[in-house]
Amino acid sequence: MTTPMYLSDTYQKENTATIIKMVEMDDSLAIYCDSSVFYPQGGGQPCDLGSLIINGIAYPVHHVETTEDGIAHVLESHPSLLECNGMQCKQKIDMQRRLVNAKSHTAGHLISHIIEKMNSNLSPAKGHHYPGDSYIELIESERTNDLLSTAQINEQVNKLVTQAPRPIQSIELDLAEVQSLRPLLSHFIPQSTRVRMIAIDGFTPVPCGGTHVASTSELEGLQVTRIKRKKDRIKVSYSIHRG
Ligand SMILES: [Zn+2]
């Protein structure tokens, strides 16, 4: 399996690892290493891109995903690569893309926290953090007549991004603690003993395996653009300027 380096440090852009497995797929090759700095696509967040440097040659990574064997770095197949099992490789990610994705993802958490504080009947249910098409969905536990307005949410966003930014940490909690903090979400997460959570200072942590920035001050330009109701769900779209 692959040790995921991106869980401990969003800002780490390089890593040296050992190649432990290679799988050929038509014109592509999936390379597995003992550790990876690449975020694999999933959890509503696009994968990292970048390159693997093997024997001094940089091979572009086209796609990264999780399989039962670990994190697969998918690249164009090349005859010289087929002899590389067991060798060292250097991994480099496109840091600009990583940060765009981490900001967009963290923004989704911040907005969902702001909304659940405004209306305690709403709990985070889903996030789709693709830049250009970012939204979150919240489940309404009890139908209320509360109308959420984008202006009201954006006022809070602005406060937490520019006036009084909050630090953001990754923490690990026992499953029992997660069940008591987040009863609705705890059914949908892997039932492992320790659960990785994102904790924005002042808000209830949520389980998440994505990459997040270190402070809400990095979310400059964030704005909620649309709120739409779908049965018992509220869909909230947002955008964030790239920086
Ligand atoms: Zn997250």
From TrEMBL:
Top-rank taxon: Bacteria
Residues in Threonyl/alanyl tRNA synthetase SAD domain copies: 195-237
Biological process annotations from GO: tRNA aminoacylation
Cofactor(s) the protein needs: Zn(2+)
Keyword terms: Metal-binding, Zinc
Pfam families found in the cross-reference section: tRNA_SAD (PF07973)
GO molecular function term, any single one: ATP binding
InterPro entries to which the protein is assigned, alphabetical: Alanyl-tRNA_Editing_Enzymes, Thr/Ala-tRNA-synth_IIc_edit, Transl_B-barrel_sf, tRNA_SAD
PANTHER family recorded: ALANYL-TRNA EDITING PROTEIN, THREONYL AND ALANYL TRNA SYNTHETASE SECOND ADDITIONAL DOMAIN-CONTAINING PROTEIN
Protein name: Alanyl-tRNA editing protein
